[in-house]
Amino acid sequence: xxxxxxxxxxxxxxxxxxxxxxxxxxxxxxxxxxxxxxxxxxxxxxxxxxxxxxxxxxxxxxxxxxxxxxxxxxxxxxxxxxxxxxxxxxxxxxxxxxxxxxxxxxxxxxxxxxxxxxxxxxxxxxxxxxxxxxxxxxxxxxxxxxxxxxxxxxxxxxxxxxxxxxxxxxxxxxxxxxxxxxxxxxxxxxxxxxxxxxxxxxxxxxxxxxxxxxxxxxxxxxxxxxxxxxxxxxxxxxxxxxxxxxxxxxxxxxxxxxxxxxxxxxxxxxxxxxxxxxxxxxxxxxxxxxxxxxxxxxxxxxxxxxxxxxxxxxxxxxxxxxxxxxxxxxxxxxxxxxxxxxxxxxxxxxxxxxxxxxxxxxxxxxxxxxxxxxxxxxxxxxxxxxxxxxxxxxxxxxxxxxxxxxxxxxxxxxxxxx
Length: 418
Prior knowledge:
Residues 322-414 form the Ribulose bisphosphate carboxylase small subunit domain. The structure is a single chain. This protein is 46% helix and 13% strand. The strands form 2 sheets. Strands 2-3-4-1-5 form a 5-stranded parallel β-sheet. A 4-stranded antiparallel β-sheet has the order 7-6-8-9. It has 418 residues and is α/β, with parallel strands linked by helices. It starts with 6 loop residues before the first helix and ends in a 6-residue tail after the last strand.
């Protein structure tokens, strides 16, 4: 099967890796190449194809290995794999690289709900140290003065803005945003369906029909076409005999005829997959569950508070409206601030902290997700003020596009003033 390597991808990796094996006087070469982009665009697979084409050996680390119940293990693992790769270069006399897949998943911080552990700090610090001293990488508890061979590091991820900023600065990490254009997609998809008899024109039409889908979509589409034959096979032998027929069978593995790879059939199956994607995006059942659980925890929430101007415009009887406003947990000023935050397109989070942790800034989130509705924000804030009556409670406005905080306001202090 002839897989397609995007020229831009090949050029970027080849230049970065080769440059790290050359001695360029007076030139500071970044050790790390960070390849980032949206999910499913084949970043890791393109890297594998480049390594195979250039005859490069690769030492792999998964983002899932960057956390451990024992503090320091992931950082030691990175140092150990780096030293092993340097030894491979020396022994085999060929280019080798260290590759960390999904670095942001293992060492990134996506929002205030993501824990920033000791291991996360050590992983970031270790990569920074290796980038600054690539020929002097020691294991904890031992020291070897013999200089190591420089090992290029390739890391992949979806969103590098979640990583520690000093790690991704220029000089340590060179960034490459991978977003295949139409020609790249046509070439990659042609490699996926190369054995299925589709013409170049049909490949282009398939790509244009699902122009907004990632590269992995087309690979999953090809796999889905085989579902019909597998379903027929299961019904023929019976559900009870599938295990006996497929695993350790004396008859050998089952064989299947080539399925229907016509363009119309592919488009029909692809549209079903797109419909399933949309169901996932629109269901948002977790929000419903969270609202339900909050209702169970807090029994009955106070009714929505009318706007301040409505309170002032209604007639007053013996100061009853003034009495009602003063008894509310959420003041009218805070309600107005909530409205202003949401009107600007921001989302709201609520955090709490006790007096001891307040001095270290160790705030914890009161809600599981960011809030974008006024009634939900007021209800959640009321509940948080009641539950954490002896703690600090603050309101946080978050810009979802820039993924940063724009406002942090303390609503309640331990003496219950708000």
